[in-house]
Amino acid sequence: MQSDSASASLGSENNDRPPDLQAAYTHNPKPGYPSAAQRMGHEGTVLLSVSITKTGDVEQVSVQSSSGYESLDRAALTAVSGWKFIPARRNGLAAAARVALPIRFYLQK
Fold it and tell me: Which of 7-11, 43-47, 71-75 is predicted least confidently?
């Protein structure tokens, strides 16, 4: 299983001006791969919408696009809800932001 942190698109609470610097990921633990999903060969990518506070905490997380498997979606939601981010910056100050975050679950062949 791998957490993909490919380019993240960010929005902000203030839609008239994007952040100067986007939120960044810190060293967060990868989501656990549900054992039943592993046994059944389930793989997929969950796209999460994550609201990040100006202190870098996760305020809200939801599934933007499902992996097709509820157990993988749930594992991604559970893990990311406890993550910490480096906040976005606007005019040199920390700012709240929203990030689209893909989490990829795959089995080693």
Answer: 7-11
CA–centroid distance for 91 within its chain: 25
Give the integer Cα–Cα distance in Å for 104 and 47: 9
Query: Cα(109)–Cα(94) distance, rounded to whole angstroms?
Result: 42
Q: Look up the CATH number of the domain holding residue 92.
A: 3.30.2420.10
Let me know if residue 55 belongs to a domain. yes
Tell me whether residue 2 is in a domain: no
Tokens, residue 87? 């906040």
Q: Read off the pLDDT of residues 54-100 as tens digits, 9 standing for 90 and up.
A: 999 999 999 999 999 999 999 999 999 999 999 999 888 999 999 99
Examine residue 1 and state whether it is found in any structural domain, yes or no: no
What are φ and ψ of residue 80, in 5° steps? Answer: -70, -30
- Domain carrying residue 50: 10-105
**Residue 25: pLDDT over 80:** no
5 belongs to a structural domain = no
